[in-house]
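Why this split exists: single-chain examples teach little about how molecules sit against one another. For that reason, every record in the complexes split bundles all components of an assembly together and asks for one structure covering all of them. Below is a record exactly as it appears in the raw files.
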Amino acid sequence: MLDARKKNVLLAIVQDYIATAEPVGSRTIARKYKLGVSPATIRNEMADLEEMGFIEQPHTSAGRVPSDRGYRYYVDHLMKHEELTMDEEKLVLNSYLSKVQDVGEVLRCTGNLLSQITNYTAVVLTTHYGKGRFKHIQIIHMGPGQAMVVLVSDSGAVQHRIIDVPDSIGPEDLDTISRVLNHKLQGKSIKNIRLTLIKEIYLELARQKHVLNMAMDLIRDGLDVKTGEKVYLGGIFNILNQPEFHNVEKVKTLLSLLEQEKELSNIIEGVFDARGVTVRIGEELENESIKDCSMVMASYGMDGKPVGGIGLLGPTRMDYARAYAVVDYITSNLSLVMERLLRGRGK
Amino acid sequence: MLDARKKNVLLAIVQDYIATAEPVGSRTIARKYKLGVSPATIRNEMADLEEMGFIEQPHTSAGRVPSDRGYRYYVDHLMKHEELTMDEEKLVLNSYLSKVQDVGEVLRCTGNLLSQITNYTAVVLTTHYGKGRFKHIQIIHMGPGQAMVVLVSDSGAVQHRIIDVPDSIGPEDLDTISRVLNHKLQGKSIKNIRLTLIKEIYLELARQKHVLNMAMDLIRDGLDVKTGEKVYLGGIFNILNQPEFHNVEKVKTLLSLLEQEKELSNIIEGVFDARGVTVRIGEELENESIKDCSMVMASYGMDGKPVGGIGLLGPTRMDYARAYAVVDYITSNLSLVMERLLRGRGK
DNA sequence: GTTAGCACTCAATATAATAGAGTGCTAACA
DNA sequence: TGTTAGCACTCTATTATATTGAGTGCTAAC
């Protein structure tokens, strides 16, 4: 599709623009990238590349800038895949070693790591709660009339909630209910708990009438967990270091997007089914307010099933090779950490 | 200290500047605020006020702008206290009614409310975990070799953590340990748990040797909770709507502060002991990067004891009267919500 | 003590001039 | 036929220069 020299010119333009954020002229390319031809020749090639839609000109007397399509071609065909430095890998491993207490903490830490290493804004997403499967429930008696429900899903999400209980119900009753629920709910999809189980619970607990009502209430209200995903952000203000965001209006539209977690999770969920790292460039993100941005994303998970995703958000001019390497390295480690966390060291 | 007319002039300057963000000239005051005197007279008063340090001039041919000291005088002596509109109060109450499941959720919601109503950036802080007192612990058996520790403090914070346990320990053993710990730790300060209890636990469980080691490990590692406060932010990007932040450099220093949770919590913790709403203006915040900002803060709590604080961050030119009213209204409601949440409806 | 009047200051805006980077095209060259 | 030197042209960015206008401080009169 593109002959070797055109590829080289495009590569030079993309690399130079990523590095300098200045439109790239023919002379610069000839000087810096030694393609063995004169600026005039390069100008001809550039005219062709522009006609094909890979680069564009901000105005007549400026150099060329890659278009979304140009970046896409770069990512798909020209980009050299990088690796992290030893130091960076060590940083990641150490962070994970010291934070393996709690899923939320691990994800927050992941967001910070991502942004710290890359200087881009990081987005970390946990999967929709309702998609998980039931793992364990425990109702803990905390005092007269008060109890706490703790619900754990196989994706590692833990929900807790304080509820009121009739004074007549003691710790043993709560244990009974817990046991029955655990038995009945094993492996069920959390989203469907309410629908499927009312009858069964009824039969099981019919003999202990005073406990029954409580259990029913619990299923109706207590398990009505918030089903939203959770989004962790890291390095929000990193984006301000990019020259394309020296204008406050742009920053505003971007930040207001970052506050709408719904939008973000839609974008990232779109790549859950993809293998490995996915890059969405500019308009490919299909969102007006970040049409000048790109996102490098991947999902993490257990046993090959995704339970969440991470993404790096930067200008379309971002360093894709580096972002790609970082996202790749971190997702695979994150998946390991999650498995260890949810299954215990032995397994 | 200031005669009535000077007060009126100062009030006019502060109000006008808060409303317009433009330096206020003598003519504007005479026209808009009908003090019954001519611009020339006002100029004389302004010269006095400037000499006293209440106002300053950005440059010779500009109007006057309140100084930190001017705002301070305004807040202490001139400000009229406002109330929220019915609609706003309703909004707050409704939000709280629908979110009373979980402390974290309530605080996140509070951050959003604050920023939504005021258009300033909201900071919501929970108290230092170690300062709370032990309320309940439960070790839940989740499968062979795996258990979850749930720790609740009287300030409502809940910590959960998955731990490995020896395969030889079954659910009943975990119950035993839970029971002993609950008994021994009742009401103790969480920070001191480790120091005070090792001996006692030892005596209590000496007979059940196989459980003892596990309990010891738990005390040593499992209860070593993260002691940091938690900070919830709302409406970070609201600050961008203020004309004083049209310059990206300022935004950057501010946002980088907002990412340092430590700094923020120090500021807010400083007002935990104060009754009611506290206002810190500009340099009073003692932090270089927000010397052009002010914060309106208050603590919320139970039984008069603070368990956290909230704050509104805006430019020194912020609308103190309104921020004051909002912070006041929301802290008192938040305190109620927290009490209800942690004690159950009846009490 | 108050006020009108006026010269003065200084940022902000508008206007013009200049420099410089980069292009596209043409014509000559290998 | 592909490559290249040369050159006129375009357009932004920068700098220099006027112009405007809000607002002041001071003085002198009321």
